Amino acid sequence: MVTSIVDIKGLTKHYKKFSLGPIDFEVETGTAVALVGTNGSGKSTFFRLIMNLLQSDGGSINIFDQDLTEKETEIKKSVGYVGDLLEPFSYLTVKELSSLISYWYPSWDDKRYTQLIERYHIDEGQKYGKCSKGTKKKVEFIFALCHKPMLLLLDEPSAGVDIISQRKMKEDLLNYMEDGKRSIVLATHNIDEVKQLCDYITILEEGKIIHSFEKDELHEKWARLWVSHVSEVLNNHSNVIKVEESPLQLVTDDLPVIEKELEKEGITIKHINRLSLEEVIEHMIGQG
Ligand SMILES: Nc1ncnc2c1ncn2[C@@H]1O[C@H](COP(=O)(O)OP(=O)(O)OP(=O)(O)O)[C@@H](O)[C@H]1O
């Protein structure tokens, strides 16, 4: 049976110049969802609402089958979050911060903490506020993992992080997912993270979810076809995303459907290329 670890319905937040939602969003247990969108599309706002750091204007957020507004403290004990939450504690050293945070989480794993501090070469004596941008992300990431959460909410965890540590983060996230019971929501501009870690992709544009899909479905359906000519029917077909001239080619989001249609219209296919994930996302954002 498929169970949802996160179930969000009709979530809205209005600022003077920006509105998020209404958003419906689900995360199945044991899966990783990438949240992708251009700058300012609302990803951080969405995370801050899920963490109850921001008050929503409407809708409901259920995590682990519990309402966030009723059971915030219990829920948060099993959620790990990376998203600039530690800035108010800039005057504390990493070590002092770890004492504070470990006290709050009953499931804190001190051995794991020591391992990760060494793995990411963190100087525990340094004040958090004096850490570099990438080091701050690594410290947040370590704290998020060390209480063994059932859900990780990661808002651009690798932004500013060196490539060696990025690789380690990916390894640690794959290990985290290994038992099939833990889930991730990951906002990122890093396509490799999406490819290597995520099962589902949700695209946010101007505060709205414009697409949600399973990553592996894409390869079968999205393609670019070089064709002999294009008919009126094809030009207006809902699965033809784009028609380009010289050489004549079209982009489709449903190759099997379009192949049948081309055959019916007597149009010859000269060549077919599957689209990369980057290209598909670009087309989706372009349509949105
Ligand atoms: N406190 C606030 N008051 C008013 N507007 C805000 C506030 N916080 C965020 N916004 C606006 O909400 C919109 C979404 O911002 P948000 O930070 O959620 O985007 P994002 O997708 O995370 O962007 P990025 O990819 O650049 O991190 C932006 O237009 C931003 O200016």
What topology does this entry show?
Layout: E1 4-14, E2 19-28, E3 32-36, H1 43-50, E4 58-63, E5 66-67, H2 72-77, E6 79-82, H3 94-104, H4 110-119, H5 133-146, E7 151-155, H6 163-177, E8 183-187, H7 191-197, E9 200-205, E10 208-214, H8 215-221, E11 223-227, H9 232-235, E12 240-244, E13 249-252, H10 255-265, E14 269-274, H11 277-287
Parallel strand pairs: 3-8, 3-9, 6-7, 7-8
Antiparallel strand pairs: 1-2, 1-4, 4-5, 9-10, 11-13, 11-14, 12-13
The chain binds adenosine-5'-triphosphate.
Domain ABC transporter: 3-231
InterPro entries: AAA+_ATPase, ABC_transporter-like_ATP-bd, ABC_Transporter_VariousFunc, P-loop_NTPase
Organism: Anaerobacillus arseniciselenatis
Major beta sheet, specifics? Answer: 6 strands, mixed
Query: Hetero groups bound?
Result: adenosine-5'-triphosphate
Q: Average the pLDDT over all residues and give the rounded result.
A: 94
Q: N-to-C terminal Cα separation, in Å? A: 33 Å
Contiguous low-pLDDT stretches (5 residues minimum) are none
Give the fraction of residues assigned to helices: 25-40%
Strand arrangement across the biggest beta sheet: 6-7-8-3-9-10
* CATH topology value of the largest domain: Rossmann fold
Beta-strand level of the residues, as a percent range? 25-35%
CATH architecture label name of the largest domain: 3-Layer(aba) Sandwich
Radius of gyration, whole Å: 22 Å
Structural class: alpha/beta
Count of alpha and pi helical runs: 11
Specify the CATH homologous superfamily of the largest domain. Answer: P-loop containing nucleotide triphosphate hydrolases
- Tell me the count of domains: 2
| Count of distinct strands | 14
Task: Choose one word for the global shape.
Answer: elongated
Q: Give the ordered list of helices and strands.
A: EEEHEEHEHHHEHEHEEHEHEEHEH
Level-1 CATH class name of the largest domain? Alpha Beta
Organism: Anaerobacillus arseniciselenatis
Keywords: ATP-binding, Nucleotide-binding, Transport
GO molecular function, one term: ATP hydrolysis activity
InterPro entries: AAA+_ATPase, ABC_transporter-like_ATP-bd, ABC_Transporter_VariousFunc, P-loop_NTPase
